[in-house]
Design goal:
- There is one protein chain.
- By secondary structure, this protein is α/β, with parallel strands linked by helices.
- A hairpin with a 2-residue loop joins β1 and β2.
- The longest helix has 21 residues.
Length: 342
């Protein structure tokens, strides 16, 4: 799941939108999943729907612990670092200094580069953990919202990670809708609805501008997202960030029929669908260059169009998981797809 260099103009546009939001820009949030009736006058208590559960907040949480880079940057993009006790994430998540909300990293404690757990959360004095299924929460590790509730700590689930009732499959809405839902919900929980609305509006505009220049119709290349894995590739289904990033950038996501978020498939399926472009998710111990070398040397892929024509591009993990970097990733990928088609 991982980076490209975002154009400076995109960063500036986002920075300007955040500046406007910080000044109280009055932008009405767009409709979509996760909407609830506005709290009268923006006061508490407020109720939001999170992964199908109604949750009521009598006041804004003051000591939030976040897990992973995308989740952490959602908080930073809303200017909520003063409500955070800290964040947990490894140090393989790419450049953290070029985003408009980079100051959040300087103001917020990096609690651990290891796996989040209950002891760490309690030591931080957390009143809420913002994480998700497979983004920190795991029954196998005994770290779940129910376990936190038993020790008096609330939780908010990343909407991309919501389970959909088919075993442990994840995803209940389109990936960008998940991002907008979380921004809108957190705007209400922390009484920063104007900031959330301005940010959503700026993201919608950025995505629309990228789509207007994106390949269309027969020019849309077939695209496969390669996360990792040799025996079976880990990839994105319809409910993980890459689906919307690929499709809105002008690609035809070859795994769009998978009703899951991040999941594995067989190489035979990849070969049969013959992607014309492969997007590598850059993160972890296996570098993007090593992933590229594997794809180009793996015999079953030798006749796949993307491999034959060396049409392999790279995005960072934080671009591809649910995060406020998703709109910029769409713009970057759209530009690359146009270049590959020229």
């Amino acid at each position: 799941m991982r980076d490209l260099v975002r154009p400076a103009a995109l960063a500036l546009a986002l920075a300007l939108s955040l500046s406007l939001a910080g000044c109280g820009a009055d932008v009405a949030p767009g409709g979509g999943e996760g909407d609830g009736a506005p709290a009268a006058g923006g006061h508490y208590p407020v109720t939001v729907e999170n992964c199908g559960e109604k949750k009521t907040y009598d006041k804004a949480p003051q000591r939030v612990v976040t897990n992973d880079v995308g989740i952490t940057e959602i908080m930073f993009s809303l200017g909520l670092e003063d409500h955070m006790a800290g964040y947990v994430m490894p140090d393989d998540k790419g450049d953290l200094t070029s985003v408009p909300w980079k100051d959040g990293y300087g103001k917020t404690k990096w609690l651990s580069k290891e796996q989040i757990n209950t002891e760490l959360v309690l030591d931080a004095g957390a009143d809420l953990v913002f994480a998700g299924w497979n983004y920190g929460f795991s029954e196998g590790e005994g770290f779940t919202p129910a376990a936190l509730e038993r020790v008096g700590v609330d939780s908010y689930l990343l909407s991309e990670s919501c389970r959909n009732g088919q075993g442990k499959a994840r995803g209940v809405m389109a990936p960008l809708d998940a991002l907008y839902t979380d921004l809108r919900n957190l705007g209400r929980i922390f009484d920063v609805e104007d900031r959330a609305g301005a940010l959503i509006a700026s993201f919608r505009k950025q995505v629309a501008e990228a789509q207007a220049k994106a390949p269309r119709g027969a020019d849309r290349p077939r695209v496969f997202l390669y996360d990792d894995g040799k025996d079976k590739p880990l990839t994105s289904g319809a409910y993980a960030g890459p689906h919307d990033i690929i499709t809105k950038a002008g690609g035809d996501h070859i795994m769009k029929d998978l009703k899951d978020s991040w999941t594995t498939v067989g190489w035979e399926t990849v070969v049969a669908r013959d992607p014309e472009v492969i997007v590598i998710n850059n993160y972890g111990d296996t570098t993007a260059e090593r992933k590229r070398a594997f794809l180009k040397s793996y015999a079953p892929l030798a006749n796949v169009s993307a491999v034959k024509n060396d049409r392999i591009v790279v995005l960072d993990y934080v671009d591809l998981v649910e995060s406020p970097r998703n709109p910029a990733a769409i713009s970057s990928l759209a530009a690359q797809l146009r270049k590959l088609r020229s």
